[in-house]
Here is the input.
Amino acid sequence: MLGPVILAASRSDRMRRLISAAPGTRQVVDRFIPGETVDDILPVVEELTGKGLELTMDVVGEDITTPEQAAAARDAYLELIDRLKPLELGTRAEMSVKLSMFGQALPGGHELALANVRPVVEAAAAIGTTVTLDAEDHTTLDSMFAIHEELRRDVPQTGCVIQAYLFRTEADARRLADSGSRVRLVKGAYKEPASVAYQDKHEIDKAYVRVLRTLMDGDGYPMIGSHDPRLIAVAQELAHRAGRKLDEYEFQMLYGIRSEEHLRLAAEGHRMRVYTAYGTDWYGYFMRRLAEKPANLRFFARSLVTKG
Here is the structure.
């Protein structure tokens, strides 16, 4: 199983240096991360929305070691929101944030992350869109859910992410569905111990379907984060059984993966949102994309033997 090895490499400074210096890396990174600045990403926003797609945008970066860096991450999102305002896209362009970027792991990190993310959520609401709090490793989730609950008091449309491979997720899904939350369900992309998470792919898939059924039958807004054709078909069937209309749930997929499927779902009338990351600190995000799908790793390996 290469996935756990790649996830371990995502935390290695030595591997970061080696991969960053490899001649074919930039070619592959560009497949998943279409730019480094707001100026890079705005044409992508206009291109995708012009095709009937929606976006959630992530300013990549997780290695926050000072409050100043956390404030800079906050300001990067505020700049993005300011630049989106004239486009008047509303919820067709939302944001995804990792609370680690806002200082969650620093001393006093819960309060710091809440203080930094709140103005982002409020600024997004002011231009008619919203923010989703990404899930990270299991040790951060109690803090993330508490911040999510706090933010929803003033901005109820604030979303969050849950991960099917964690044992706790079925209970989290029931609570969130009952509260009417916007919830993105993903399989999970962090290396988690067997004490807290399923390790077998088949067990993870079964858990995904159980959790998705809970979300579809609940009062919230499910967001299906998967590229798996089987799970996409299951999601459509569960939505039909629950009596949901096409605008009462949505699909979400990563930029650069199964792009034709993005367009197919949108053409069928589904809400199809593309998770689009940008920024200079791309390494951790990139490595998790490789770990998620063997085809991504093969594509990367082939590129490494090309001449820069």
Residues 67-84 form the longest helix (18 residues). The longest strand covers residues 272-278. DSSP finds 13 helices and eight strands in the chain. The CA atoms of residues 73 and 239 lie 36 Å apart.
